Amino acid sequence: MAEQLAITDLQVDIKQIPLKQPFVTALHRVDAVNAVRVTVRLANGVTGIGTCTPNEKVTGDSLSSARAVIEETIKPLVLGKNLTDWKELLNTVKTSIVHNAPAKAAVEIALYNTRANLFGLTLSQLLGGKGGSVETDYTISIGKAEQMIANAQKMVDQGFKTLKLKLGAGHLKRDIKLVEDLAYAAGPMVHLRLDMNQAWDVRQTMQAAEYWHKQGLLIDFIEQPVPAWDLDSMAYLTRHSPYPIMADESVENYEDAQRVLAKNACDYINIKLMKTGGLSEAQKINDLAESRGVPTMVGSMIESIESLAAACAFYRANPNTIFADLDAIFMVDQDPDLNSYAECVGDNIVVR
């Protein structure tokens, strides 16, 4: 029986889906979902699929490098391994190569889906949760102020109750006014989340946050306003900002989470499977954060439904994960594989 659970094949291909419009942050521009897709097959025929979306400016790798790592490094190590040796299998992927988190994430998600399919479960059930709705925000990428405001109004009209704004590519005063103008245009019931992608310093963040607070703006948090390495500034802002501070780029793995939490350098942590290398490390980070009383958000890159569905399953299984930023599925006209995993209803991803 055990030999039927051996991994006999691991196939890799590329999945690409154009975006409705370019996605721009302080770090980069994206025009399409560019994903590496991994399909794992067991001796008994059971399969599972995972994807990753590398990004040179965020994860430090590319589509071609991630594919090469999977095919040339990870695949030879996992072929012949048995799904019954689950912890050993996950450790093999994790230790196969340093860095290269997206490549590891694609393989690990495929392994988790294979295991879920083997047991006749959804991934949500395998992780200890159940299928259902995941309410996500929608990210307004950087552009001209009038364009960003128009996009915000459009998404509110489509049913989104929370908007995430990318800031940090222009002058501070411009960003301060933009947030105020957009908040008024979107309406008093719409929540805002602000992401500077490391573009500001403490002075700029405090100046902006104090102004917005005086105006009574409904802001859930300010995400990674300062450079990822600057934990002293993150800690200062966590103590003094009128709005909660979320760590994103400061936390890529469990060790990063330990350092950030030891310094009390955030109110929330943004967990992304493309940063952590998959679900197992993400779970460790969330468990640690929960033990310290720090809630988390599950976030994403510009990803395809396979990895977004895995992130949704993670959200459904972890009560400490109270926010979701999984909006890439709404940025494409149609992911051809959407119906195999979920459906989109308003601002919700309803995952199986």
Strand content range = 15-25%
CATH class of the largest domain, please?
Alpha Beta
Largest sheet: 8 strands, parallel
Q: Any idea what the CATH superfamily of the largest domain is called?
A: Enolase-like C-terminal domain
CATH architecture of the largest domain: Alpha-Beta Barrel
N-to-C terminal Cα separation, in Å?
29 Å
Multimeric organization: single chain
- Mean pLDDT across the residues is 97
CATH topology type of the largest domain:
TIM Barrel
Q: What is the alpha-carbon Rg in Å?
A: 20 Å
Number of strands: 14
Shape: globular
Number of domains: 2
Short description:
By secondary structure, the chain is of the alpha/beta class.
Q: What labels would you give this structure?
A:
alpha/beta, Dipeptide_epimerase, TIM Barrel, three-stranded antiparallel sheet, Enolase-like, domain 1, isomerase, 12 helices, about 350 residues, 2 domains, 14 strands, magnesium ion binding
Write the layout of secondary structure elements.
Layout: E1 7-24, E2 29-42, E3 47-52, H1 63-78, H2 86-94, H3 101-119, H4 123-126, E4 132-135, E5 138-140, H5 145-157, E6 162-166, H6 172-186, E7 191-195, H7 202-214, E8 219-223, H8 231-240, E9 245-247, H9 254-262, E10 268-272, H10 273-276, H11 279-291, E11 296-299, H12 305-317, E12 321-324, E13 342-345, E14 348-351
Parallel strand pairs: 5-6, 6-7, 7-8, 8-9, 9-10, 10-11, 11-12
Antiparallel strand pairs: 1-2, 2-3, 4-14, 13-14
Helix pairs in contact: 1-3, 5-6, 6-7, 9-11
